[in-house]
Known about the structure:
Blueprint: E1 6-14, H1 18-29, E2 35-38, H2 58-61, H3 67-80, E3 84-86, E4 90-95, E5 99-104, E6 107-118, E7 122-124, E8 133-134, E9 140-142, H4 143-153, E10 162-164, H5 168-179, E11 186-189, H6 202-206, E12 211-213, E13 216-222, E14 226-232, E15 238-242, E16 246-248, E17 252-254, E18 286-288, H7 299-317, E19 328-333, E20 337-341, E21 344-345, E22 356-361, E23 365-373, E24 378-386, E25 392-395, E26 405-412
Parallel strand pairs: 1-2, 1-6, 2-3, 6-18, 8-13, 9-16, 10-11, 10-16, 11-12, 19-26
Antiparallel strand pairs: 4-5, 5-6, 7-17, 13-14, 14-15, 19-21, 20-22, 22-25, 23-24, 23-26
Helix pairs in contact: 1-3, 1-7, 4-5
The protein binds flavin-adenine dinucleotide.
Amino acid sequence: MPGEPCDRADVAIVGGGPAGLAAAVRLRSRGVDRVLVIDREPEAGGIPRHCGHYPFGVREFGRLMKGPAYARRNVEVAQAAGVGIMTGTTVTALGEGPQLTVSSGGGVRSIRADRVLLCTGVRETSRAQRMIGGTKPGGVMSTGALQGLVYLQSLRPFRRPVVLGTELVSFSALMTCRHLGIRPVAMIEPNRTITARAPAGLYPRLFGIPLLLGTQIIEICGDRRVEAVIVREDDGRVRTIETDGVIVSGQFRPEAALLSGSHLAVDPRTGGPEIDQFGRCSDPAFFAAGNMLHPVETAGWCWREGRAVADAIADSLEARIGDRVNALRIADVADPLKYVVPQVIVPDRRPAPIDRLQMRLERPAHGRLVLRKTDGEMTVLGAVDTRPERRITVPLEKLASAGPGEARIVLEGEA
Length: 415
Ligand SMILES: Cc1cc2nc3c(=O)[nH]c(=O)nc-3n(C[C@H](O)[C@H](O)[C@H](O)COP(=O)(O)OP(=O)(O)OC[C@H]3O[C@@H](n4cnc5c(N)ncnc54)[C@H](O)[C@@H]3O)c2cc1C
């Protein structure tokens, strides 16, 4: 906006989590001078700041670390590399140029950069988004909010909550509860199997927490505080569980508020930006990496992806990446596929930072993954037999013969 003070960076990175910080360090090592990381939190480090448990950091730093130590290490390495880190600053708008509008205690101002990297991560789906009925008492929160209270503010919001969901993060919620002596009264999963990989299912058993599969929370009851939840079991029976809190965990969505109202193309499947294999958005001055692209991967995955996309940014500053001409665009995926990333494949032989198609399923399924182009051409990508929320990857080389055009990915031969 005219009249606002304006800062300048070669590369501005929105989000100082593992992806953003790893990218920043890599950009500095590639000789990029002014690398600026902007984060709305008082400290950079991202989600691991409040994951007070193992395992983080083994592949990145050769050490088994808890989340907060890992977050601090990422910040220290970035500072030592000469990265500028601006905290307590929220990016509120993205503009062509590129230009960012940022807001902090000091007011609103603009930042101009040659390239922008978006690394704003994910958030869990809220109670309202899951349309759980009942009253609105205190004590209903996401795992992220719980971890923030427990690890950053040393608060104990409840003593005997229920945990809704069985993704990896739901087990992280159980560990967080254990850390403060909170004893969940049940772990509740609408599907008939747990979502995380099998060994995770041992955890509730080990600590005597009933695991209720095929069970829905239909109502949350309580006046000021949660007093009970009403659940419907697989056989239709309805019963009441007394509890003083509800942890609504998982079902991640990208933290993509910035994209709405921006000029960047959004992929309706992921909710994140549409990217090519270089992590490049529809405006080639913007890139994206980390969990905002694919809800949800581990910190280590996002860290490596941030670093790899940084190489593509450094190359693009030297005009060494081709334009999006003759691209293959995977415009859609068919049920039960949930999403595919990247959505655009540019014919370019250089090693791609995102060198595989990444997909997930909505429900357990098996069959043959096929890329079908609108011109009728098809490419078999491989067989899958997997559960929801498990990563499916296909090397991009498998698409080498597909050529340009619009395509869709379908799962054929499903039983
Ligand atoms: C509750 C929860 C628990 C998790 N637990 C684990 C775990 O135990 N192990 C694991 O491997 N993974 C876990 N994850 C997955 C987690 O997303 C990754 O570990 C990793 O943090 C992703 O890195 P990232 O850099 O993509 O994003 P994040 O770490 O989420 O970092 C994004 C950063 O962007 C900032 N930001 C967002 N929007 C703006 C804006 N508009 N302006 C300025 N700054 C902004 C945020 O403040 C944040 O610091 C968890 C995720 C959640 C939500």
